[in-house]
Amino acid sequence: MMRILIGVIFILAQATMASANVRLKDLVEFDGVRGNDLLGYGLVVGLNGTGDGMRNAPFTEDIMANILERLGVNVTGEQFRPQNVAAVIVTASLPPFSRTGGRIDVTVSAIGDASSLLGGTLVMTPLNGADGQIYAVAQGSILAGGVSAEGEAATVVQGVPTAGIIPLGARVEREVDFDFGGLSRIRLALRYPDFTTAARIEQAINADFGREVAEMLDAGTVVLDVGATRARSPAHALTRIENLQIAPQLRARVVVDQRSGTIVIGDTVRISRVAVAQGGLTLRVEEEPMVVQPNPFTDGETVVVPRTRVDIEEEDGTGLAQINEGTSLAEVVAGLNALGVAPREMIDILNSINAAGALHAELIVR
């Protein structure tokens, strides 16, 4: 059985043509069917002494005073130092076709020196779009994503207690103006532009309708003629095509994550026959100073005599090993595993094979 290097993950990034069929809706974005990002600035109350320090976060005091004044409480000239409030940034995404009165999830993140938002409640916070208009209002109890405990001599933090979510915590107050039903042509934007994939989308749509209703403009765009589909509306046209099965043709890629030692190899990656020699050279320098004392009852001085030991070790390594030409992912993985090296060394080998021109794929290093 083929041995897989521990700590290295080889994932089939692309399946074979027989099993790679994907729904059209998972390959493209439909023109106009998109979300909108919302942003707000608010106040969280009810924290158990884990809020902002007013001396380090004066903006928290300002927003708290503004909220109290809107509620009819006069705090002009007053100084208060509560530890149960925190200033936060509230973010959300307004889904396409959201209607007034609907609810969406929001994310709450502390911007001051609060240590935890656990148990806090977000006070009514307007959420603005890129045009400055208010599209939703958020309020509710926060579900923090972590926990922290602190004592006099130690502190333990698990997860991220300074950020949390409020499920369905915002109510939509304004709809995005967009006449989707009036579109005569709909663009299908490929998430990963490719001429072959775009051509297959065009062919699949035209074959389903039995006539020319779709046209490929470039590697990332296919245009659907709604009138030619004879559908009652653009929504009916998209309903018919969104579940069509398409076999995407993606580029051969090798993705390397140097931090975790993870390697992801796509199914279309190929390696030409190449010979690899891998070994390690270790240089060790150790300082062991020695203290020399004078003889008793003499006028000598105590001195420190430096002592350095230098050692060079060269590991045996793999020698000169041949990696045969791989015509499939299994053969490529088997050839790399034959080197019998650690994950970190495998990353260097892949980089060197790519530099030699033997790796027929795009190498992405993160």
What share of the residues lie within helices? 10-25%
- How widely separated are the two ends? 30 Å
| Count of individual domains | 3
Radius of gyration: 32 Å
Strand content: 35-45%
Coarse shape:
flat
Structural class, please? alpha+beta
Average pLDDT for all residues: 79
Number of DSSP-assigned strands:
24
Task: Give the quaternary arrangement of the chains.
Answer: single chain
Topology as H/E string? Answer: EEEHEEEEEEEHEEHHEEEEEEEEEEHHEE
Q: Which spans of ≥5 residues are poorly predicted at pLDDT below 50?
A: 1-19
Strand order of the largest sheet: 3-4-5-9-7-6
Largest sheet features: 6 strands, antiparallel, barrel
How many H/I helical runs?
A: 6
Family: Belongs to the FlgI family.
Protein name: Flagellar P-ring protein
InterPro entries: Flag_FlgI
Organism: Roseicitreum antarcticum
Helices and strands, with pairings:
Elements (H helix, E strand, L loop, with lengths): L21 E2 L4 E3 L5 E10 L12 H13 L15 E9 L8 E8 L10 E8 L5 E8 L1 E8 L4 E18 L12 E6 L4 H15 L4 E5 L2 E5 H4 L4 H8 L3 E2 L6 E5 L4 E4 L4 E2 L2 E5 L2 E7 L2 E3 L10 E3 L2 E7 L4 E5 L5 H9 L5 H13 L3 E2 L1 E4 L1
Subunit structure: The basal body constitutes a major portion of the flagellar organelle and consists of four rings (L,P,S, and M) mounted on a central rod.
InterPro entries: Flag_FlgI (IPR001782)
Main location: other
